[in-house]
Structure formats: C-alpha cells, structure tokens
Amino acid sequence: MAKLNKLQPAAVWQIFEKMCDIPHGSGNETGVMKMFQGWADERGLSWSSDKVGNLLIRIPATKGLEKAAPILIQGHVDMVCEKNSATKHDFETDGLKLKINGDWVTAEGTTLGADNGIGVAMGLALADEKVPHGPVEVLLTVDEERGLTGAAGVEAGFFESRAMINLDSEDDDAIFIGCAGGRDSVFELKNKATRAPKDSGGRKITLGGLRGGHSGLNIHENRGNAIKILTRVLLAVSEEMDLRLVEINGGSMRNAIPRESEVKVVIAKADGRKFKKLVDTFLARILADELAGIDDGFEWKVSAVQAPRCFSLATSLNTLRLLAAIPNGVTGMSQDIAGLVETSTNLGVVATKGSKVRIVCCSRSSIMPSLENLVTQHKAIGIMAGADVIQPEGYPGWKPNMKSQLLAVTRKKYKAAFGADADLLAIHAGLECGLLTEKYPDLDIVSFGPNIRGAHSPDEKVQISSVQKIWKLFAATLAEVAKG
Length: 484
Description:
Blueprint: H1 10-20, H2 30-42, E1 47-49, E2 55-59, E3 71-76, E4 98-101, E5 104-107, H3 114-124, E6 136-141, H4 149-152, E7 163-166, E8 174-179, E9 181-190, E10 193-195, E11 200-208, H5 226-238, E12 244-250, E13 261-268, H6 272-289, E14 299-305, E15 309-311, H7 313-325, E16 329-333, E17 341-353, E18 356-365, H8 368-384, E19 388-390, H9 405-418, E20 423-427, H10 433-439, E21 444-447, E22 452-453, E23 461-463, H11 464-482
Parallel strand pairs: 3-6, 3-7, 7-21, 8-20
Antiparallel strand pairs: 1-2, 2-6, 4-5, 5-23, 9-18, 9-19, 10-15, 11-13, 11-14, 12-13, 16-17, 17-18, 22-23
C-alpha cells in the first residue's frame, strides 16, 4: 500500500502498514502471525509460539547493554472488525484501506486496528530503529478483543522478563497503572416460529448512524446503544398494537457499543401507517431529547417486507422485555479515583438464528464483588425470562503498584522529555496485564500508548505526532532500564 512510508518513526509505520494489509480480526490471526515469523527470520531473530497461538520474538541487546535484565514488550495482534453498513469490506479476506487526514491515520469505513496494532509495531520496531536497549522479548498475544484468551493461555516460563511495558493504552499524557476485570453473560432464548396471522404484514426497522465506540472507554459518554433504542421503540409500539418478532439483530462485538440494529416484525395490515408514525415519532423524540450533540448522525428506516412466519405474541414480548431488563451503561463510579468508571455493562450483541435469540453482554469492574453482583443480576434476569444463561470465566483486574521501579523510571523519563508530570490512571477496560500477573506475580508493569480515538468503531484513528511522542518516551525508558 505504501500510504504511510513518509511517516516517522519509519519502522513503526512500515510494520503497522504490513499488519493492515493482512486480515487479523479476533480468531483470524494466523496470517499476520506467519508474517511476523517470517519478519523475524529475515532479521535472524529467534521466536517461539505457544499452544494458543501467542508469539514471542526475542530482540538482542544493543552493543554494550547485553548484561542488562531483559524487558518484555507486550501487545495484542487482533483487532475489532466493525464497518459502516454502506462499506463493502470483508474482514476475512480484505486488507484495510488506509488514509492520512492531517495529523491522523484512519481507515476508509472500517476500524483501523491501531488498537493494538500500533503498539505491536512499536515493540517490533526496536529490531530496526537505532534505540539503545537491553535484551527485549516482544510478546504478541491473540484473541484479546473477544475475551483475552491469548493472555489467559500464556504459561509460566514462556518468557524470562520480570519487567513489562504494555503498549495497549490510548492517551499519550498518561501512564496507566491499573485496569478493570471483566466477565461476559450470554443469554439464549429458544422460541418457536409459527405461521403469521391472517391479514398481517411484515415490517422492518433499521437503525444506524450511531457513534458506537469502546464499551469500556466510552461507556460513560451516554452514546446511543442501537439494541436498547430498538427495544424501547418496539415495546412502545406494542402498547398500541399486537406485534410479533420475526428476527432481531444488532451489534457485532460484545465489547463495542452497538451502532446499528434491525428488526423484522409482523403486524396487522390495517396498522401499517400507524406503525410507521409511532416509530418515527418515538425515534425523533429520542434523537432530539437524548442524543442531540452525542449521536447527531442517528437515522432509521421503516419498510415493508415479506414475513410468512413469526414468533408468538407472548414469546415476542418476552424477548423484548428481556432486552429491556438487561442493565446497560455505568452502574458505579470509583470512590478512589475521580472520574473513573468503577462498574459498567454493555449489551453488545443480539442475533437471531432460526427461532433462537442470542444476547451477549460484556461487564467490567475494578471491584470484583461488584462485578460478581452484576453477573448474578444478569443470571437472575435471564432465568426469569426462561433463557439459558452462560457466563464463561472472566479475567482479573490489574491492581496499581505505586512502588513499581518501572513506574518510577517511566515517570522520570516522561517529565524529562516533556516538562510535565504524566497523569497516573487506571482504565475502565480490560488489559492483559491482570492475567499475566496471575501467572507471573512478580512482574513489574506499566502501560502507555499514543492517542487513539474512536477505538472499536469505524471512526477509529491514531495520531501521528502522538506516536512520535510515545516513541520518544518508549526509547528513553528502555535506555534508562538497560542502565540498571
């Protein structure tokens, strides 16, 4: 593609662009991992892979620093695959179409994968850029976005380092020292489809144009959830007329705020005009009263469709009431860190296959009892609706360590480079740090990264000047660590 060949640091952008040319959504990382293995072979670098598909590439120390303790650089190679409905793109086969817009790099109509591709590129670029450092191990993990299963599969002894820089943060004026833990809840409703009543007709409502975003980083911004909005309008209409579901779908990733949703329903033919008027009136009010200034691009369409079969009236209402009852958004704020979301949940996906409706929620908290309470609430709601509720094992949070030696070095180098103190923050999102400290309790970790905006949505972009800033901090920190 060679769209980014004039950007600096050159090696960082070259590696990132190579990644963007190879599909690497969660669960589809084999191609990009083979590329990195070949990349390492070309440079004579040793590497190892483990049984879950993670890759460890070893970069020797620069001359004179061979005796320094090794340091681990860590990032995940998978990306969230989101696109605008009008964008023709197959994430299984197509590379991303990159573009530069002023000081930002973005992709045309899709997520960019700067989360966490730019961090991966920065770690590997140490092999090509002239930066003083001791022995470096670069750990590239898989399947982070679907539940951090790559990090969960890292076994004790896979790497030697006892200090680690995670490059999966998205604000260049902060050093991150803690993160939330998380757990998912999956609901499955088994309904039966029956023949549509006589004198009925099908209608489809399509919602789109919402901003979406990261279910941890953006959850406090009151961005519209397309599934929740669709549920609300359907329940409102059901107060005025009989309404039967044919299928309901929305969202694509558990950890992304749903931007789009769609439903097909059966109503009496005589209610067609009334149905459209009710939907238009209700959604227009939401746009004006709730989403103005937040999701101004919100749009919808009501159209006629063929619908010979549908769910019963009772199962349709039960499904909608379950979607309405499932909590969504911020449920608690931190008492220790001003402005930090402590506990939240995101209703991320609803999908209909045949007559089975599947709903997926992603919950987060930096307080484990609060997280346990939230998933217990999910289970209780699901059971009352007659759903099967599946709650896989979650992942732990990462507890801040203010006595960290690596943190002290990073803070020192940040202030020396930029003349100000970095903010010390915990993040309301899942980082792999918590899982890795379970396997390596003595692992000393900090996390930082360049400015990334709109992660997990087609608006995702990474700031060019911010990558240069973080590279400067990264290089200075590695040089200082190597000195001991």
